[in-house]
């Protein structure tokens, strides 16, 4: 028996199927962003472990609390102001004018909002490593809100919004070498400069006091950061349903690893040759070199060949080594080497993009114009970050909100600010072999303050 289907019914079925496919694509793209945003948010765990391992035991609770709160404080500031400044539209090349507090923001942008918010939180988190062990908690809240709500979003509007002025002149930065890392690295340097070095950091009395306390935490944090970077770079494409998307994402993820590989090879060779560091197999220096290599490829990670990514990571490692040698000699105390890793890697990443994409500058006629645009972009990001940071941290310093007192710093932020220790004090006094209560042991810490003051003088 023949079934007669009219032409209008066939057309209607085709149109319905096409609409369903388009809806499915949107859902897949949103899910792609949300899942990768969740993975990127694990970088907060990585930063927490890395920073906690690099500080003294008496400041670990403070570090953990700051990294946990980053996700929640930055969410409010980015929702109220940040996303509107970054992607609000309105035709202005310098900042967005819509979507503040989510007003009139299309529901279709919820996935984009979440993914971009995690980037904003990452930019703010990076700075905490540069001011660790002496930053006042109210200062941390203040700068986290401003960096994630104003400083970073305006730069991301310049570079990633269709209206952005840097986007229009040809600036290219796929996953934030300049937008995230150069900005955060610059802010970190200014923050460390304004807050000053940790008590006794550059004295010769106790040079090993600030070497950190837990290499397992440092290693765990680094591995989590690398995992987060894979989604950080891979999902920066913003979608996964268009032709060729899978190849771009896969290439970005692979090049993320290759960037770190190039840096790892260089640091191991130089250390083994006795040219850098005190150890022939340095652990902390290798970790930061690898992270710098990964940061360095962010600008063109989607277009690099694997060999190019390795070369970019290698050069990034050299830049890291130069900066991590120079900065302490400027008497700037950066406990996590945030400036060397993120400023150095971010700046090189912006410059490397036009030099190594599309066959390299020797084969790419667009390389020089792109280099010009990227240099303008890098300079603009640095100037914006310096001015904003100087105002922000200068304000906090003038009103004595930036740094804790010397006594508080010596006793430790865990007990002084939080009254909660990361590592509970034992009931056994090793000094005399007798049992003593916790209060007595803690009192000894307070009694030692005067003695440390005398030694540092």
From TrEMBL:
Residues 32-423 form the Ammonium transporter AmtB-like domain. Keywords: Ammonia transport, Membrane, Transmembrane, Transmembrane helix, Transport. The chain crosses the membrane at residues 31-50, 71-91, 111-130, 137-155, 175-196, 217-235, 247-271, 283-302, 308-327, 339-357, 377-396. It is found in: Membrane. Its main location: membrane. It comes from Aphis gossypii (Cotton aphid). GO terms for molecular function: ammonium channel activity. It is a multi-pass membrane protein. GO terms for biological process: ammonium homeostasis. GO terms for cellular component: plasma membrane. It holds the Pfam family Ammonium_transp. It comes from the Eukaryota. This is Ammonium transporter AmtB-like domain-containing protein.
């Amino acid at each position: 028996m023949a079934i007669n289907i009219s032409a209008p019914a066939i057309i209607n079925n085709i149109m319905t199927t096409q609409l369903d496919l388009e809806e499915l694509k949107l859902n897949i793209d949103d899910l792609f962003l949300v899942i990768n945003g969740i993975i990127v948010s694990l970088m907060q765990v990585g930063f927490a472990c890395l920073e906690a391992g690099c500080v003294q035991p008496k400041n670990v609770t403070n570090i953990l609390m700051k990294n946990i709160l980053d996700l929640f404080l930055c969410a409010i500031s980015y929702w109220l102001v940040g996303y509107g400044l970054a992607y609000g539209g309105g035709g202005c090349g310098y900042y967005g004018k819509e979507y503040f507090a989510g007003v009139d923001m299309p529901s279709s942008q919820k996935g984009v909002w979440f993914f971009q918010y995690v980037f904003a939180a990452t930019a703010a988190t990076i700075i905490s490593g540069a001011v660790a062990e002496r930053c006042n908690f109210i200062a941390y809240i203040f700068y986290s809100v401003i960096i994630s709500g104003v400083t970073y979003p305006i730069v991301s509007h310049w570079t990633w919004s269709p209206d952005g002025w840097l986007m229009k002149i040809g600036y290219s930065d796929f996953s934030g070498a300049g937008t995230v890392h150069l900005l955060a690295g610059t802010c970190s340097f200014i923050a460390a400069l304004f807050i000053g070095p940790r008590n006794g950091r550059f004295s010769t009395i106790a040079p090993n006091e600030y070497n950190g306390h837990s290499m397992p935490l440092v290693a765990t944090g680094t591995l989590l950061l690398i995992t987060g970077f894979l989604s950080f770079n891979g999902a920066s494409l913003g979608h996964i349903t268009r032709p060729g998307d899978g190849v771009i994402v896969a290439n970005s993820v692979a090049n993320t690893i290759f960037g770190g590989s190039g840096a790892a090879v260089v640091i191991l060779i130089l250390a083994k040759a006795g040219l850098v560091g005190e150890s022939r197999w340095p652990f902390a220096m290798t970790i930061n070199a690898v992270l710098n290599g990964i940061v360095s490829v962010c600008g063109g990670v989607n277009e690099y060949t694997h060999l190019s990514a390795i070369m970019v990571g290698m050069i990034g490692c050299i830049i890291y080594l130069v900066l991590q040698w120079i900065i302490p000699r400027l008497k700037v105390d950066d406990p996590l080497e945030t400036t060397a890793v993120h400023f150095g890697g971010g700046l090189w990443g912006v410059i490397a993009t036009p030099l190594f994409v599309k066959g390299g500058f020797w084969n790419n006629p667009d390389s020089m114009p792109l280099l010009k645009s990227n240099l303008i972009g890098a300079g603009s990001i640095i100037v914006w970050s310096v001015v904003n940071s100087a105002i922000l941290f200068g304000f906090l310093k003038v009103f004595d909100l930036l740094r804790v007192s010397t006594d508080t710093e010596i006793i430790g932020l865990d007990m002084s600010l939080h009254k909660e220790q990361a590592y509970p004090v034992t009931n056994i006094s090793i000094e005399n072999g007798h049992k003593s209560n916790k209060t007595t042991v803690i009192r000894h810490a307070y009694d030692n303050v005067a003695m440390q003051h005398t030694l540092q003088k």
